Amino acid sequence: MMRRYLPIVLIVLLLAGCGTRTATPTEPTTPETPGQSTEKPPVSESVHVPEPEPEPVEPTLTTDPVYLLAPSAATLWGGPVSVVVENSPGARPQAGVNQADLVVETLTEAEITRFFTLFWTKPADKIGPVRSARQGFVDMADAYNTPFAHSGGSAEALAMLRAAWGPRNLDEIYTAGGYFYRTGDREPPHNLYTSTDLLGQAIVDRGIDMTSVPTTARSAAVPTVGDHTAVDVFWHRLNEARWVWEDGRYVRYTDGVLHTDEEGRPITAVNLLFLGVGGVNRGVDLGWTLYLWDGGPATVLVAGHRYEGTWRLEPGGFVLYPPEGGQLPPPGARAHLGAPDHRRV
């Protein structure tokens, strides 16, 4: 069967560092002395002085390989764990996508996309709608060595999971239904959800041996803006995504509408990564087969600045490699990947 070369899009959501405002200390209370006047002297009206905005800087670059998942040193919720989340119109708005460290969007069958989401640094009270697995999602979960939550899957994906995954295979239909739930506000299959609490309990109950993924340094600097401030990703005439640079971040629009989560927050990014990967559409029963272990070319956009390199999926996850004599920016805290077929980005 002939392979088709797909432009696969990896969009890294870099969260800029946020300063915290120190609370104003409360003045001590002095007990009143008999005969002492309680009248306070007039206080001049305070003037609010806004905090200065961070000065934009050029993006930080490195000649080292770049792992695409780099959590902070803060206490982790207990992951990593990965979940398949639906992205058809009936599934929107989704829950938990903004809490994920890594979001991988690929075609499943026809022109429908789904998200492979990986949770590591932040808990999520609600994740979903949860849908079925595909071969590419299984390969990604395998690379990151995470428990994998899904609801059934293609014949190829289920065969891979049953052959070697054991307790890490958190399948709502066959092996782990108690760690998922359905809501009454949507019709099936768009109403199946889970949470990091439920998945954490599954890890404990099933005795899953948890491991960590590689970590690298990341920059919280606010970059200057380059020329690449809008990107269109064409999946199908009824399924298009657009990323527009607004207020220091790329904001996602899907089919011309702002793409938000259940809490009304837009899906945003500071880094966009476009990867090339081989693949073939094997029909309704199997969906797309993606040759992720082969790697391919990579284009990285950081606040409108463009960089070229290559990528591979390795034990430990997605890795970017700078070209000979070149550099790439370090990763952010969250990543989003998509596969827009053979058409255009």
TrEMBL record:
Q: Which InterPro entries match?
A: DUF3048_C (IPR035328), DUF3048_N (IPR021416), YerB-like_sf (IPR023158)
Which residues does UniProt assign to the signal peptide?
A: 1-23
Protein's UniProt keywords contain Signal: yes
Give me the stretches of Low complexity compositional bias. Answer: 22-34
The UniProt keywords, alphabetically, are: Signal
Database matches in PROSITE patterns? PROKAR_LIPOPROTEIN
* Pfam families for this protein: DUF3048, DUF3048_C
Can the keyword 4Fe-4S be found in this entry's annotation?
no
**Segments for region (Disordered):** 22-60
* Domain DUF3048 residues, every copy: 77-208, 239-329
Q: What is this protein identified as? A: DUF3048 domain-containing protein
Protein's organism: Symbiobacterium thermophilum (strain DSM 24528 / JCM 14929 / IAM 14863 / T)
Please spell out the taxonomic lineage of the organism that makes this protein: Bacteria, Bacillati, Bacillota, Clostridia, Eubacteriales
